[in-house]
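hey can u check if this looks right to u? its 215 residues, i copy pasted from the old doc so theres a chance i mangled smth
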Amino acid sequence: MKPATDPLAQLTEIRAIMERSSRFISLSGLSGVGAGVVALTGAGVGHLYLREHYGEQGFYRLLNSDQGQRLVALPFLLGLATAIILLALAVAFYFTQRRARQDGAVLWSSLGRRLALSLAIPLVAGGLFCLQLYLKSALGMVVPGMLVFYGLALLNASKYTLDEIRLLGLTEIGLGLVAMLLPGLGLAFFALGFGLCHIGYGLLMYNRYERSTPS
């Protein structure tokens, strides 16, 4: 005689199998924490640079500087942004790959590629748009634009991964819209959106999905 099977357990298992097949669920909360730390460090470096070259008011004075001064600062700011992106991606890749290995999942699967593409398209478009804003003397809209496009990228990618990504995306968009009203606080909003929000999200995801998982 076959042992009785728990229907609820069967449904839970079926749901887990379907979720793994339709969503990339190996994103690590630690990747969010690491990316947030990188962003905060980058914001700190940017603040020190602006204070050294533009005085105590730093970012606010850069907002009100002429185009020549903004072009002088552009190579450093572009280099800093590139370094932040590359380091954040490296941290995210390391922790996500580690979790995918623990889950027995393939990181660069067709699902992983779709997730990366859904993130990349809004991010590349947003990066080019924000660069044009800077060149056209609309510096005050650069950080709001970065936050809004990043939030849209997260919303676009959320259909392929954890539902919490959607909430993070909406939060980034909301911060971007508020930052539009307070352009002089752009650096602070950058630190809040890309730094503290990532750290908070990462800790939430780690405690919810990974804390009981052995390293």
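The radius of gyration is 20 Å.
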